[in-house]
Amino acid sequence: MNDNNEHICIRCGSPTKISNITVRQSANPLYPITVTQYRCINETCQKDTDDKQAELLKQRLEREEKSKKNHLSKKVEVSA
Ligand SMILES: [Zn+2]
Fold first, then answer.
1. CA 37 to CA 4: how far, in whole Å?
2. What is the distance in A from the centroid of ligand 1 to the CA of 61?
3. How is the chain split into domains, by residue range?
4. Is the distance from CB of 70 to CB of 76 less than 8 angstroms?
5. What ranges in the chain are assigned the alpha helix state H?
6. Which of 9, 15, 41, 46 is deepest in the core (most CB within 10 A)?
7. pLDDT, tens digit, for every residue of 34-58?
8. Residues contacting 9, CB < 8 A, separation 6+
């Protein structure tokens, strides 16, 4: 059990630092999901990762918003 050992960036091999720890609800409320985010100390690599994650997050939120709206009112048409 060496989970707390330093993590190595899988992209460039640089050491990483913990940047954020988020607890999310999972399907089972008794077992929330803990998400630990690591930042690569290589700024170029980290920026690339940030950009991709931001894009993925944006897409996910947009999908969630759409499905929420669809759920609340099926008459609402979302024009992209
Ligand atoms: Zn990296």
1. 13
2. 26
3. 16-72
4. yes
5. 43-72
6. 46
7. 999 889 999 999 999 999 999 999 9
8. 15, 16, 38, 40, 42, 45
